[in-house]
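Narrative summary of target 7.
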Amino acid sequence: LAAVVAAMVPARSAARVPVLAALAGRRPARERTRWWLTRGVVALGLGIGLCWWGGSGGREAAIIGGILLVVVGVSAATGPLLGLVSRLAGVAPLSLRLAARDAGRSRSRAAPATVAAMLALAGAVGGVTMVRSNEAEVAQSYAASLRDDQIQVSIPSDRPPTSAEVAEMVDVSVAAVPGSVGGPVSFAYVLDGEEQVTIQVSGDRGLAVGDLDTLDALGASSARTAFEDAKVVGIGRGTVENDSVMLYRYGDGGPEPTGQQVPAVEVEGPLLSGSPRYLLSVAAAEELGFDVQPYQVVVRAPGPVTDVDVRRVNLAALEAVPSVPVFVQRDYPPAGLAPLFAGMLGAGALVALFVVALVTALSREEMRSHLATLAAVGAGPGTRRRLAAAQSGLLGAMAALLAIPTGLIPAVTLRQSRSSSVLGPAGDFIVAAQPVVVPWLLIAALVVGVTVLSTAGGGLFTRTRVRTT
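Modeled conformation, tokenized:
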């Protein structure tokens, strides 16, 4: 559709030029540009309003319509803006003044080219804003499952290992990472007929059972005395209130209070989504009448875990207990997307520079007679080279500046029209507005880079010899 419109508009414009006027090199009178500027401003305002209205209510059709109006509005205002620049360039240096006046006189050529380059850059600006905002959202909603010095050896529930196998799995896992500590983690349950009904804390958090090594591996060594006194250890801020926790049975009908309120102590620590939050000793669990079944081994290394550590633990566990399939995991924080930023900005800049180069070459052909006149009155090759550089730089700068609102308005609107889940202070996921991060430094670098490269390209790749035939 864009290609068809791009072909039809100049064809229609050329068809409206009288033959005699075209042969004589005279341009027909144009519609007064202030009406196009007014139309562009109105369309831009309506587009922004429609985008915000659609974004506030999740109306995607309105958002798309608003984005189209924004693009149409900026495109319609580009020609009048070039005319305004040509009128304001009276005090500029000679090369820039001639380039601005040429762009103002040749708006039918310069404006579409500026819009084409602007759209390529707007895609890069909007895309980078979306990606950077998505990256911030991932970082905001990212809930670490483990500490950076922990490894989990998960045991499947369909083939529970024996106590001897669990002990061996702990020994070899700890031996695989020198200086580490590790222990088994089990879940507490009671039998209701043949069904295992798990025991939870506050109705939504599982109660884990382990030993002192497990407590150390979970980073709660400061609670050893309380742990030995049969207290529940809550790991993380807000896990324990009033020095006790209520236990629940969690079956098919949901959580049911057991009537058991157990003394508890809270220790400082991060709220981890994949790590036990409440730990009770094996002896205390048996005293409360609970059975236990191991489901993982937690290993805590003396420093941040590496991929080599994970492979060593995996091989050691498989060799020690080959009959029990295990899954070794570690926590991976979200990766950066810097290469994607560079790719998006580079692609947009290349397309824009290509368009600017074509328009500069076309402008030079149309200005051949003017260049000959400049040469006749004594303008040297440097003046003609600076004129070409100014033409390219002006169009590149205009395209880059107009790309900022054209790219940011859709990106910001699309981001604010959705919500995401983040980990709250109590460890529960809550709904929050998606963050909007505008990479102003990257955008400024894009504007400056496109302007500088287009200016340099226009000056360096322009022949200074004037053809008179």
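The first strand starts at residue 150 and ends at 154.
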